[in-house]
């Protein structure tokens, strides 16, 4: 009997992924042991039994068992990481001979979106670095003219595409870039760790654009942007930082098209915040609240659409609290457009506030807020709504392409 074809999932892995996986396994084991000990001790405390040095720590033989588990896990993890670290140069030579697959890139993007801040803080090899790309290749100051020339005519108008949470640049459909390239643009794409705070990514983007655009092969005329979801928040943060630092590229931005950007947050993260509250409401479930706190800083920033350092610094991001953002208006002197989507066939109270495009409420994408002082001033002519359209469809829907052409085709912003 002929065996069915198998999907060789391992072909998407890189040799360096071994060390990354070992680190995650060690950290996961430690976290599970801490949660188990916390639940164990919570039960004993309700019976009046004393605890260890910390409230969540067991004592006696039970505490010794948990200490042994943690000690052995740490020892094995350290030894394994040391051995794999020594093999890292060999891993790098092997990996350089194998192109990255779209499947692996998608998994890395999702993993970084969920826990990218943890990966960065722990030095895990799976943590993504921010890069600008063209035709799948990373752009550097050294290879910039060569890579751009191979992709097509190099123009004086780069067009920057920025993806959203848990995504990468390969997930843009390509239709938008192809259509806008006919207007004289040179499309370039950003790939970044969406698990970091929005303002951290904004700062990195501001510096990266300053570095790369100084090496652009032609004198620049403009830098226009098409941004999806979280990408819009990252760009607003980068522009604020660039303008405050007088970086030259900020003055080149003429147009920004926001596609489904949660300017005032998304209810999905707020639901996750309620999980923290509910799990922390009883002594038995309180140790399990750590499960809800696995979500990244990038995700928690989406609760209200945080853009600036001051919006999150010095605050417990897992604590349920009202919107305390410092209002950041749309950048002055730039034509800002917003395209919002809804799964509903028409507008209505439920469709606008809850349904939206499945992830982002319609009012949030339009920059509207119950407090007038927080509203973003998108001119009526620079707003558009797509009905019966989901959040991810904005990446390649023909109707979106046509709207972008209508906004970007004039020689000067209206």
Automatic annotation (TrEMBL):
Alphabetized InterPro entries for the sequence: AB_hydrolase_fold, DUF7379
Molecular function GO terms recorded: hydrolase activity
Residue span(s) of domain DUF7379: 198-278
Domain of life: Bacteria
Matching Pfam families: DUF7379 (PF24096)
SUPFAM superfamilies per the UniProt record, alphabetical: alpha/beta-Hydrolases
Record bears the keyword Nucleus: no
Alphabetically ordered keywords of this record: Hydrolase
The keyword Phosphoprotein is assigned to this record: no
Protein name as catalogued: Alpha/beta hydrolase
